[in-house]
Amino acid sequence: MNRDKISIIGAGNVGATAALHIAQKGLGDIVLFDVVEGRPQGVALDLSQSSALAGFDVKISGTNDYADTAGSDLVIITAGIPRKPGMTREDVMSVNSGIVSQAAEQVAKTSPDAIILVVTNPLDAMCFVAWKKSGFPKERVLGMAGVLDTSRFRFFAAQEIGVSAQDVEALVLGSHGDEMVPVISAARVGGVPLATLLSSEKIDALVERTRQGGAEIVGLLKTGSAYYAPGLSIAEMADSILNDRKRLLPCSCLVQGEFGLDSIFIGVPAILSRNGVEKIVELELTDNEKLLLAAAAEKIKNLQDGLGLS
């Protein structure tokens, strides 16, 4: 059987969890890569031994050699140092930019037709690194953040209102950080505007908790960061890409005029297909939401400029 090939760069908790969800969805054969000898092989073997129970037949292998990732259809970059309590996503940028640079260069050599999905923090800046270092067209480099941030917002809103998170419709744009922009004007609960169910004060509290959603988990774990929700978010995006579902999902894409922004990777609604980013979809924002998105764009541009890759 001819299956898609999915390589995951980084066999830590995020990469391993993503691999499990991708395997359960039957999206393709998986190669886990890591620089730590034995780690990707051990994770791959452990995941493979769950196949009879989880009901999947895809092949999962581990390697320390980029050559084994050759010919990948989708490459997911999760490698990088995680945050510790008190650290921001930007605090890990120097080390992680080097890791992502090497990964993107290797992907360009071994899988020139692949789509690159970046997960490493600081997300938007690392997408820029992957794009520059791979030389790939903008449609084939994107980042996972909005799906995760939106899921967090939906959960927090559902908790506050006392409904199923599945009934909360929301969209989080902007940066994957303190400048993320939950689009309150578009938020609905079973079709009912969120603003009619919660006070502005409670909505502001939800927004702030969403912005600090990752930091809250880092503070509790103390020795790691989130991986269950990020792993499933990756799998949702991989599903839309590899199965050509053309789902409209918030993700970090290179904008060139959309939303009045240019030449930065930022969270926007995008249709994902076998081509990668099929189309960025613009929606009407309130004046305040426009200001918040512009502030996020300025922060991201400063980070990108600091990389010296423009």
Could you explain how this protein is built, in words?
- By secondary structure, the chain is an alpha/beta fold.
- The protein folds into two domains: 5-143, Rossmann fold (3-Layer(aba) Sandwich), CATH 3.40.50.720; 146-306, L-2-Hydroxyisocaproate Dehydrogenase, Chain A, domain 2 (Alpha-Beta Complex), CATH 3.90.110.
- It contains ten helices and 14 strands.
- The strands form four sheets. A six-stranded parallel sheet has the order 3-2-1-4-5-6, with helices on both faces. Strands 7-10-11 form a three-stranded antiparallel sheet. Strands 12-13-14 form a three-stranded antiparallel sheet.
- β1 (5-9), α1 and β2 (29-33) form a beta-alpha-beta unit.
- α1 (13-24) packs across α9, α6 (146-161) crosses α7 (200-211) and α7 packs across α8 (213-221).
- It starts with a strand and ends with a helix.
For the terminal residues, how far apart are their CA atoms? 43 Å
Counting DSSP H or I runs of 4 or more residues, the number of helices is 10
**CATH homology group of the largest domain:** Lactate dehydrogenase/glycoside hydrolase, family 4, C-terminal
Query: How much beta, percentage-wise?
Result: 15-25%
Task: Please name the CATH topology of the largest domain.
Answer: L-2-Hydroxyisocaproate Dehydrogenase, Chain A, domain 2
- SS class: alpha/beta
Label the overall shape: globular
Which spans have pLDDT < 50 for at least 5 consecutive residues?
A: none
Largest sheet: 6 strands, parallel
Radius of gyration (Å):
19 Å
Strand order of the largest sheet: 3-2-1-4-5-6
Mean pLDDT: 95
The CATH architecture of the largest domain comes to Alpha-Beta Complex
Order of helices and strands: EHEHHEEHEHEHEEEEEHHHEEEH
CATH class of the largest domain: Alpha Beta
Number of domains: 2
Portion of residues in helices? Answer: 40-55%
Strand element count = 14
